[in-house]
Design goal:
- By secondary structure, the chain is α+β, with helices and mostly antiparallel strands.
- The chain has 17 helices and 24 strands.
- The strands form five sheets. The protein has a nine-stranded antiparallel β-sheet, with no helix packed on it. A seven-stranded mixed β-sheet has the order 3-2-1-4-8-6-9, sandwiched between helices. A three-stranded mixed β-sheet has the order 5-10-7.
- Helix 5 crosses helix 13, helix 10 runs antiparallel to helix 12 and helix 12 crosses helix 13.
Length: 573
């Protein structure tokens, strides 16, 4: 739990935040509920122009400080984290990004892991949440190549010179941090996490680095523009010969697409090629197998690996060459600031004409392939059940890939309409009822509510497919909610009870500030309440309980965290 301000905590969590209103609340919610270690949380507001500082200040156990003026040549992030480190009182420092979500107990486990392995720096590569097409296509390629460039086993080996860290989660001893000069020593580095790790290892201290889906997850970029800008900033610095790597990836991918039609032509023109028809398929199979194996170390599932093989590789080539060009020109932009890196511009030049030719061919092929895909009739996919790369319920923001404020058409893209699905109008607006008929642990529904303007204002889940950042899903106990959410208010809906929900009125626990609600039904067999539904809605805006409104006389307030209404409140009264 967060330590009192007067004490010396074991751990200081430092979060640099610049215009992070979309993700900061979920990050802080996952941190303030941590247990097993005394810690403090410091959010460094890096000249944000949105609600970042307001959101951080709404958490009572979080210290919010300002980053201050940006010193000459410093990057914004280095200035922010250095400011936070100066204010930190912990024996350990955890630098983590505002778009991360930390699993319950992960802070205590990380400290124990660092101690057990005698590591001065422990860095986790988080589980990457991908929602949009290009996120799901590009991320497997990027992280596969990163795993090849910075093998975790070598990074963690004291006898290997390889050093790396992931800035989304860096846990470092305060003594070691100060000894290597902290972020002030890498103030001009855009890739400050790797630079910091190199200083730790060169000082003779030990690093532990691993993939950690069991501890932390993140969604780095929320649209293509952010993805392009973010990887343009980083890729040319992460790989020592970006042009050569781009050419290698492009030739492998291009060879795959050349070999496939050659094999098809040979198969259908056996009179010309005779018994050699099948031989044309061998290169296609060999290259395809190599590409899939190459992406296996990315820690993504097979579906995303296939998407990365087909579409992610050429986009990776484009981003890699774009990053190289932007760094060479000194025009790398990130969050409203422009940076240059002298190390990139003074490297031995690779063939710019070749790089430009590869980039142009890559873009042309990508456009052609995507145009072909888009030209397929949309009804061909209407009965296909979706597979979700993102199953997180983010309070006040989204359920899986569907965000509040999006349109019903977007909802139907994500949740394709089936014969079993329904739509209706009620006092709250219009509702889409999508049945999760392929859920392996039982059916459930996703209810999507939208207003007359065609904007989604509320999304409800009664399926175990989706879960909150704290791991809460349907059928969990109310106690799990109470331990994770500390500002819930309770209501009861006094409609006629249904046997489907235990023949008792539904109870609602709601946090209007965060935009999340938990509906509790009754289980007669175990004589206990359970989570029947999880709802996200716009914070401090309209919430609709079932098919009623909050103006209804059937909607009554009860004591916070009550699981049963008082006896005087009865649906029959």
């Amino acid at each position: 739990m967060p330590a009192p301000e007067s004490s010396s905590p074991q751990l200081s969590v430092i979060i640099p935040a610049r215009n992070e209103e979309a993700s900061l609340a979920s990050c802080l919610e996952s941190l303030v509920s941590q247990s097993g270690v005394d810690f403090e949380i410091i959010v460094v507001n890096d000249h944000s122009s949105d609600r970042t500082a307001e959101i951080a200040a709404s958490f009572p156990n979080v210290r919010v400080i300002e980053a201050g003026p940006l010193p000459p040549a410093w990057t914004g992030k280095n200035n922010a984290v250095a400011t936070g480190a100066r204010e930190a009182r912990g024996q350990w420092l955890l630098f983590t990004d505002a778009d991360t979500v930390h699993l319950p107990g992960s802070l205590a486990r990380a400290l124990a892991e660092a101690t057990e392995h005698n590591a001065d720096l422990l860095s986790y590569s988080p589980e990457q949440i991908a929602v949009t097409f290009w996120e799901m296509a590009v991320l497997p390629v990027v992280f596969a190549e990163l795993a090849r460039q910075y093998p975790p086993s070598e990074v963690s080996d004291p006898n290997s010179p390889e050093a790396a860290a992931n800035g989304q989660f860096i846990l470092i001893r305060r003594e070691a941090y100060d000894a290597i000069g902290g972020h002030a020593a890498v103030a001009t580095e855009i890739l400050e996490d790797v630079a910091l790790a190199r200083r730790v290892k060169s000082s003779g201290r030990k690093i532990r680095f691993r993939y950690a889906a069991d501890a932390v997850r993140t969604r780095m970029y929320r649209n293509f523009a952010q993805l392009r800008e973010g990887w343009t900033k980083n890729l040319a610095l992460l790989f020592p010969n970006p042009g050569r790597l781009a050419a290698k990836i492009f030739l492998l991918w291009f060879g795959y697409w050349i070999a496939m039609p050659a094999g098809i032509i040979a198969l259908y023109d056996r009179k010309q090629v005779g018994g050699l028809a099948l031989v044309w398929w061998i290169p296609w199979l060999l290259i395809g197998t190599h590409l899939i194996i190459r992406l296996r170390c990315s820690n993504f599932d097979e579906r995303m690996i296939r998407r990365g093989t087909l579409f992610g590789m050429p986009m990776f080539v484009y981003l890699l060459l774009r990053s190289k060009r932007m760094h060479k020109n000194g025009t790398v932009s990130w969050k409203g600031r422009t940076y240059s890196n002298p190390e990139v511009t003074t490297k031995r030049p690779e063939s710019s004409q070749t790089n430009q030719a590869i980039m142009k061919i890559t873009v042309i092929l990508l456009v052609t392939m995507l145009s072909t895909l888009v030209s397929y009739p949309s009804h061909a996919q209407i009965t296909e059940e979706p597979r979700f790369a993102n199953t997180m319920i983010e309070p006040g923001h989204s359920l899986g890939p569907l965000k509040l404020g999006e349109t019903p058409d977007r909802a139907h893209e994500i949740f394709p309409r089936k014969d079993t699905d329904q739509e209706w109008d009620d006092p709250c607006g219009s509702t889409i009822d999508w049945v999760d008929s392929t859920n392996p642990v039982g059916h459930g529904d996703v209810l999507i509510r939208y207003n007359k303007k065609g904007k989604i204002f509320q999304i409800e889940s009664s399926t175990t497919r989706f879960n909150t950042p704290e791991g809460i899903t349907t059928f969990d106990s109310p106690e799990k909610v109470a331990s994770a959410y500390k500002d819930m208010h309770a209501w009861v809906l006094l409609t006629k009870p249904s046997p489907a929900v235990g023949s008792r009125p539904l109870v609602f626990w709601i946090d209007k500030k965060k935009g999340i609600a938990f509906t509790l039904a009754f289980d007669p067999q175990h004589h206990a309440r359970y989570i029947y539904k999880i709802t996200v809605f716009e914070p401090n805006k309209t919430f609709c309980p079932e098919q009623e409104t909050t103006n209804s006389l059937k909607w009554q307030s009860i004591s916070p965290y009550a699981i049963e209404p008082p006896k005087e409140l009865s649906p029959e009264r």
